[in-house]
Write a structure and sequence with these properties.
2 domains, seven-stranded mixed sheet, Helicase, Ruva Protein, domain 3, alpha/beta, about 280 residues, about 20% strand, Rossmann fold, elongated, two-stranded antiparallel sheet
């Protein structure tokens, strides 16, 4: 029977890249069902054959390219630890730019209504609900499996200022009006070569691809969202780093004002936004 230290060393050697040690630790504690800090106090503890076999399977899947988040079932986003599955897009750090911009438009002490379209794991909706307890958030998705993941995260995190609705973009909103609508919709073109590499190979296509130019979902949202915004309400959209001008043209054509583009921490245009006029 091997011990934790030996197994961790072997796991690190089995993985490639600068994050091999970190990934090995995360996979090992997942197989052992222990917190990461446990490793350092129990390096000499024996590991039974069941856990060793589970780690071996995880390492094989990771070596084949399967995303770490799907293997462990978790992903950190904002200040939250979220459960994820192959039914949802893996939350990414660049989307935190969208959360920051939304929070700038949501006062801390005011009751407001927010909709998150295409919520996936619930990452954006839950981050906003956590930071603004007076805000009521509606998280929507066309996928029942994705909504189940988002609901599970809300329940586990004890969020009670968030609701859920199934439907395609603004169709899920019914006749409701909101102070702010936010979305990280699919925005990758169908022939984009990046779809064949990295984590994207394993993520749900419907959460990634939006027509020949990647803008099909954004066109629908921009067209319909203005009817679901209260006067002075905001629409915020994440998009590809080269799509900003096209998205802002769509916002202008739909009647939005105060249209702007915002950059993420890598100085790439990541979000476009506009306000419904009075």
């Amino acid at each position: 029977m091997t011990d934790v230290r030996t197994l961790l060393t072997a796991a690190t050697q089995a993985l490639a890249g600068p994050d091999a040690r970190r990934e090995a630790e995360l996979l090992l504690v997942h197989a052992l069902r222990q917190p990461r800090a446990w490793l350092y106090a129990h390096a000499g503890d024996p590991v039974d054959s069941t856990a060793s076999a589970a780690l071996h399977s995880l390492l094989q899947r990771r070596a084949a390219g399967e995303p770490l988040a799907y293997l462990t079932g978790t992903r950190a986003f904002w200040t939250l630890d979220l459960e994820v599955s192959p039914a949802v897009l893996i939350p990414r750090s660049e989307t935190e730019c969208l959360v920051e911009l939304a929070l700038q438009r949501l006062p801390e002490d005011k009751a407001m209504r927010v909709a998150d379209l295409g919520t996936g794991s619930g990452a954006i909706a839950l981050a906003l609900a956590r930071e603004r307890p007076f805000v009521q958030v509606l998280a929507t998705d066309t996928s029942a499996a994705a909504l189940a993941v988002a609901r599970g995260n809300a329940e586990r995190l004890g969020m009670d200022n968030i609701g859920f609705a199934r439907g395609d973009w603004c169709a899920a909103l019914g006749a409701a009006a909101f102070d702010l609508i936010v979305s990280n919709p699919p925005y990758i073109a169908a022939d984009d070569p990046h779809l064949a590499i990295g984590d994207l190979r394993f993520e749900p296509t419907a959460a990634l691809v939006a027509g020949d130019d990647g803008l099909d979902a954004i066109r629908i949202i921009v067209r319909d969202a203005i009817r679901h915004l209260r006067p002075d309400g905001w629409l915020l959209l994440e998009h590809g780093w080269e799509q900003g001008p096209a998205v802002r043209d769509l916002l202008a054509a739909a009647g939005f004002v105060q249209i702007a583009g915002e950059r993420d921490l890598e100085d790439r245009e990541r979000v476009s936004l506009g306000r419904r006029p009075r």
